[in-house]
Amino acid sequence: MSKDKIYIFDTTLRDGAQTEGVDFSIEDKNKIANVLSDIGVDYIEGGWPGANPVDTKFFSDPPKIKKSIFTAFGMTKKTGRSADNDPGLASLMNANSSAVCVVGKSWDFHVKVALGIKNEENLENIRETAKHFVKNKKEFLFDAEHFFDGYKANPNYALDCLKQAYDSGARWLVLCDTNGGTLPHEVSEIVSKVSKVIPGKNLGIHAHNDTENAVANSLAAVESGARQIECTINGIGERAGNTSLEEVCMAIRTREEYFDFKTSIDSTKLYPTSRLVSSITGMHVPRNKAIVGDNAFAHEAGIHQHGMLRDSSTYEIMKPQDVGIARSNLVLGKHSGRHAFLDRINELGFALEKDEIDPAFQEFKKLADRKKEIFDTDIEAIVLNA
């Protein structure tokens, strides 16, 4: 039985670009878009045409990507304007993209406070916006902003917002955890209920990471029926960021015996893609970040190193080569044991006599107490003086 596909919608160039300090040039956007397409991303959200000169120019001459659907971002039409005469929708229509992702309100509190309009007016704006793009042959995706907060406050209205978009021809209804405060069990419960009204094959999730739950919430959503995940490379985005593409995709791949779905992502290109985005944005990838951090496949504790030397599966749930890293790294330090020390000596092409091993290892331990990091030249010096 074939596994269901989870569609990966990458918003690095839009939500990721809203990260404080990140400023993509057109050249940067082209470079990242081509790499995203190459790794198998299904949708690439290129930005917000009309919002700034760079995005407007980018959408006038977009990259010639073949593997992904190029998508423009915008907002529902304004109250009092027809869809045909709304400047924001006109910018989206003029963008060279085959799909548009439009964000709209789904929390009645936000409709009142942020928009200052009545609930019915908001529903009409969603309905007319969706019909406008569907009529003009643009694939339409609706991002229901603050959906989980809205559903918890007024489920009937939140669902009405989705149904307006769905009944008007939307391909995807994306449930947004805009403030990042929803917990995985809440996501599961709500998505399961929504799936009884809107088919799961039309549902997606856009999760923020304010409580470090974006990946867990995204997995909970697809496990409960949704079939699309919005995410970014390295998890960059507003405030604490978005769902990390590399983390959520590798969670699905690593636990394939548990999940009944798959993605189209070529995982062997995740590490170089992560490093490309890091170099362009100037945002350093934390050493302890899952999947692509420097420590993700590094081992210093002696018991871990001993196990790794016998079989890497003892302390690694995936192979570094699966994500584009050449090999695991047995880091020599104060916690390392004799097995890792001797293995490094052999790697460097040296050999010690039996009576030389213990004194050399003791010298190594003394040095490791004084130095934060032990280099190959340090090991060579120890061996040559043994």
Tell me about this structure:
Helices cover 42% and strands 14% of the residues. It has 386 residues and is an alpha/beta fold. The strands form 3 sheets. Strands 2-3-4-5-6-7-8-9 form an 8-stranded parallel beta barrel, surrounded by 8 helices. A two-stranded parallel ribbon has the order 1-10. Strands 11-12 form a two-stranded parallel sheet. Strand 11, helix 12 (302-310) and strand 12 (329-330) form a beta-alpha-beta unit.
Topology:
Blueprint: E1 4-5, E2 7-10, H1 26-39, E3 43-47, H2 53-60, E4 69-75, H3 87-94, E5 99-105, H4 108-115, H5 119-135, E6 139-145, H6 147-153, H7 155-167, E7 172-177, H8 184-194, E8 203-207, H9 214-223, E9 228-231, H10 245-254, E10 261-262, H11 270-281, E11 298-299, H12 302-310, E12 329-330, H13 338-347, H14 354-370, H15 376-384
Parallel strand pairs: 1-10, 2-3, 2-9, 3-4, 4-5, 5-6, 6-7, 7-8, 8-9, 11-12
Helix pairs in contact: 1-11, 5-7, 6-7, 8-9, 9-10, 12-13
SS summary, helix count: 15
Average residue pLDDT = 90
What's the Cα radius of gyration?
Answer: 25 Å
Helix content: 40-55%
What is the 3D shape?
elongated
If strands are numbered along the chain, what order do they take across the biggest sheet? Answer: 2-3-4-5-6-7-8-9
List its traits.
elongated; single chain; 386 residues; alpha/beta; 42% helix; 8-stranded parallel β-barrel; two-stranded parallel ribbon; 12 strands
